[in-house]
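Lab manual, section 2.4: Encoding a predicted structure.

Procedure: take the sequence of the chain (206 residues), apply the prediction step described in section 2.3, and record the output as structure tokens. A sample record is shown.
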Amino acid sequence: SEQSTGSDSEVLTERTSCSFSTHSDLASGAAGPVPAAMSTMEEIQVELQCADLWKRFHDIGTEMIITKAGRYVYHSSKWMVAGNADSPVPPRVYIHPDSLASGDTWMRQVVSFDKLKLTNNELDDQGHIILHSMHKYQPRVHVIRKDFSSDLSPTKPVPVGDGVKTFNFPETVFTTVTAYQNQQITRLKIDRNPFAKGFRDSGRNR
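Recorded output:
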């Protein structure tokens, strides 16, 4: 039988996802369930925190620092496809550290993914989300009912079925880069967070 969303559920992001944060509005944003009297998975809603800021970045092409060369190139002030895509990386899912929790708990505060880390190391054993550099990604957030979470694993695909609801926000699409390519992105990030590590020696690979 279908359980109330007040029952325990997982909130997670997968390799193609990433909702961020709290400490600074910048490499951050966050997703959180919208309070309402809900009784089914279909009624669950998630909204993007700092959506206006995400849109400002999206309008000029959000970039996230990562290492290793890839299949996009920034040329003449725009991103262009520059070859075939790389082979898929091992699947990774980021399970929110507060999971399992009741729907009431998730709705009590912003659900932050500020501890989520990206890597291009395909042999990573730290549980980070593995991505290719110079590729474009669409973050996705999944809310999973407790009875669907038994097979949930950081290294397996997200379960499917009536007990899973997925959300994505087009304005959170980002391109992974070795160093910021678009000066407008650098300026906007510095304006929002002058202490961000990625701005120091931004011409070097990390």
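Check your result against the sample. Residues 1-6, 14-29 have pLDDT under 50 and may be disordered.
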